[in-house]
Amino acid sequence: MAKRVLHRQDYKVGWICALPIELAAAQEILDEEHDYFDNEQSKTDRTASIYTLGRVGDHNVVLAGLPAGQLGTNSAAATAIQIQRDFPSIQFGLMVGIGGGVPSDANDIRLGDVVVSQPQMMHGGVIQYDLGKTRPNTFERTGFLNSPPTVLLEAVAQLQARQFRSHEIFSKHISGFKHLPDFSRDYAGPDRLYQSNYSHVGGPDCDNCSEEYLIKRPVRKGLGIKVHRGTIASGNQVMRDGVERDRLSSDLGGVLCFEMEAAGLMNRFPCLAIRGICDYADSHKNKRWQPYAAMTAAVYAKALLSVVPSLEPTPTLNEFIVLESLEFPEMYRRHIVIKRPCQGTGNWLFQTKEYQEWLKGTHRFLWIKGKAGAGKSVLMKRTLQELQIRSDDEPPTVASFFYDGSGTALEKSGTGLLRAILYQIFKQNRNLVEEFMTASDSQFVKGRGLGWELRELMEAFEISSKLQSWRPTILLLDGLDEGSAEEVRALVFFSSSRSFPSTPKIQTS
Predict the structure, then answer these.
(1) Where is the NACHT domain (predicted)?
(2) Which homologous superfamily is 8-307 in?
(3) For residues 182 and 302, is the Cβ–Cβ distance under 8 A?
(4) Which residues of 121-143 are buried (b: 16+ CB within 10 A; e: fewer)?
């Protein structure tokens, strides 16, 4: 059976893993795996090889792993930024994988348990323990990391409530790993916790370590996943010292586990950290528990998404018909193949007086001119990214079209431009389609269906502009010189000369 193909804007959840075993567990719990857009895009876009796309419950998810051998907060931050650039509709993220537990009298943490970052006391759920200033006889930690987004914390509470009523809420997800013996509890081996000041004797396992230093713990009843919620300590080094583990935990007010990536995300990528415990952050580390711990973390993440409300309402029949009639396969092709802007690209433009005045509405048009190959399209792509991440009180509708003179007829025509612009306007204003259908008495809506000739598209654009007069609209049009000259001039004149209640601001190149 062929896999479904969705669009970039359909993906709302970013799921990041540091290790291949964590990514494998995440891929296994997908309810559906998607193909990567169309074949032409896959040939030209490197992201086809670094993401796994799919669905978990009602949510379309992007799975991403860190580059091999590049662990730590900086690598995690770079991956999060890249996901948000490649999938601008991502609304929140999950950092899912393994971690080293911190057992204590207050928290009976065992191997295979799950730790979830949750605000506690002065911390937002994650603290970077190795960031600060070294002073005489002390280390002063600096900076504050954001809390997870409210929608995820609400889901954490909802899932906790369900656990009180049933300890089997994870069972059906765990059963999906039965055909993979490496992820089984039996493969992981014994759960041994040694006194914090007793160091590992040597060898790949603890068979040579003295049982005299084992901490005796009561047998835990039941085989379900136990979840702990609280502070996660994150840093750029592996914690494998029991004494230092306990000291740091005490200094930080009590942490549940140590890991190496979450601190790089919290202020850049609204997310929740979920860690399966694979060791006790001491010298007795081994990798036998990693697959099982990666599985329990992935299972919790899947259960969590099942209680997160759908991030987008189900489209109405009218919305489906209108959007489907406007969309065409190559609508984003030119935008996607344009080279990804380097960090800092376009900053000079955003600081100019002309750009600031255009953004405020002082001027309708901002025209960027330059020689062929000078980087105008890259600059337009960077401008689109900048506008999409702005946090305005009244966020504008931002739509774009990148002409392609060597592309299909729709990629280099006014008809294609207006179909793409209207599609994006309707997609960002979910109630607008119904209002548009009611307001329009045109034959193309009420009679013969949606065939979309240029005149009809212009009429639809005018109607939609009047209907959303309360919300500013920004249009980015790239490569106008590659389109039909007469059509392009007519469209620019049309959009600039009509007395729309909400006049669109247009940037062209």
Answers:
(1) 364-509
(2) Nucleoside phosphorylase domain (3.40.50.1580)
(3) no
(4) eebbbbbbbebeeeeeeeeeeee
Q: How many CA atoms lie within 13 A of 156 on its CB side?
A: 22
DSSP 8-state assignment for residue 47:
G
pLDDT band at 478 (very low <50, low <70, confident <90, very high): confident
Segment 58-68 mean pLDDT? 93
What is the pLDDT confidence band of residue 509, given thresholds at 50, 70 and 90?
A: low
Under 8 Å CB-to-CB from 419, ≥6 apart: which residues?
A: 326, 327, 328, 331, 410, 452, 457
**pLDDT tens, position by position, 402-434:** 888 888 888 888 888 888 888 888 888 767 777
Question: In this structure, are strands 397-402 and 132-135 parallel, antiparallel, or unpaired?
Answer: unpaired
- AA identity, residue 366: L
Q: How far apart are CA 180 and CA 177, in angstroms?
A: 5
The answer to whether 96 touches 22, Cβ cutoff 8 Å, is yes
Query: 8-307 and 317-508 share one CATH topology?
Result: yes
Q: Where are the domains of the chain?
A: 8-307, 317-508
Report the candidate in 42, 36, 37, 17 with the shortest Cα–Cα distance to residue 27.
17
Q: Helix 290-307 to helix 150-165 angle, to the nearest 10 degrees?
A: 100
Q: Structurally, what CATH architecture does the domain formed by 317-508 represent?
A: 3-Layer(aba) Sandwich (3.40)
**pLDDT digits 0-9 by tens, 10-39:** 899 999 999 999 999 999 999 999 987 654
Q: For residue 501, is pLDDT > 60? A: no
The two beta strands, 51-56 and 59-65, are antiparallel
- CA dihedral (209, 212, 217, 220) in degrees, to 10, reads 50
Q: pTM of the full predicted structure?
A: 0.64
